[in-house]
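Changelog entry: the histidine kinase record was regenerated in this release. Current contents:
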Amino acid sequence: MADLEQPPLDEPGTVAELRAALAYAREENAQLREANGHLVQATVNAQTLQDEAEAANRRQNEFLAMLAHELRNPLAPISMAAAMLERMPDVSPDLVTLRNVISRQTEHMARLLDDLLDAARISSGRIRLDIVPVPLADVLDRAVETVQPRIAERHQRLEVRVAAPGLTLRGDRVRLTQVFSNLLANASKYTQDGGHVMLAATADAAGVQVTVTDNGTGIGADVLPHIFDLFTQGPRSLARSEGGLGVGLNVVRNLVHMHGGTVHGHSDGVGHGSRFTVVLPAGGAALAAALPAAAATVHEACRVLLIEDNVDVCDTLKGFLMLDAHAVTAAYDGTAGLALAAQGGFDVLICDIGLPGLDGLEVIRRLRAGGSKMFAVALSGYGQAQDRANALAAGFDEYLVKPVRPDSLLELISSDGCRLRRQPGAQ
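Regenerated structure tokens:
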């Protein structure tokens, strides 16, 4: 057997190849370390960008809340002054016209603020639904009532067709009303004076279907796919007579989705009107007998303690309540208001939250700690759910966002405040 020849260990070709392979491996390793460093840096940058975006979103929401608060404060006395003008005797026709203009525009500004804030709250997940059995007819009636002044101002014809007036939904009464009032307001806004708007509701095994149809300006094919996107609006004239912020339909879509439903928009094009259809699932609705009407509220004068640091708000609200025969004592800061409350003799407390020194939350905490049971209503320019929750947790019975609807406040005081006073143990 022949002996096998062993290759020389120091063969030049083999050593060169090994060195080349080692150099290549080192280069690959260096590139891998560099790529890994880039990946780590990219991950850090991405996290930083996410943190900055979340911080920017928080700042945006805080800014919007502050903006609403600052704008609602001047709206409150304007709204109350308009309500006082309505109750003044022997008012001239010109003054009535001016009062109506002030009331309509104040309500319009308040709705714009609400839509803008709701869009921010929904995007940050801060809206929670209060699901209860709600008569569909009641929701639609409230929506119609909200937009009726605008419809009448433009001499438009609103037709309402409800095929199942006894239908009861499971949903959030306030938010469902907002959905349909936004759709009706949108239809009126884009329909010419004297135009036609129709609200129709039907129900079957598949669910509830509500449509809002108009014969207005219609929606172009290029805009229709984006009509529910935030800040999306159709083409405008230079006069921008339609107004709006482009958030109403976005709020509608999100609120409907939160109820497990869908909403769709349709138009045959510019100049051919539009139709919006809301479908709510069958699982959230059932045919039921109409709920009995609530008993009429019997008016009774109350002794009211009003604490509000904004002089214009305080004076106009005091004057308005006194026009309705309520006895009102006012204080312009929390310390003075608490001292008056400690003297007793009041049925109702109406208190601003943002008071200097002793704020409204601390006022009600001290009153409740002292055993006071008087009916307490909080007023605030902040309308987020957490703001309301904080006020109720502190001891307030109701939480109203400025500008307050005067008639709603009167109804609340007459029905709850004075009734509570007659209960045993009330102070």
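The two ends are 121 Å apart (CA to CA).
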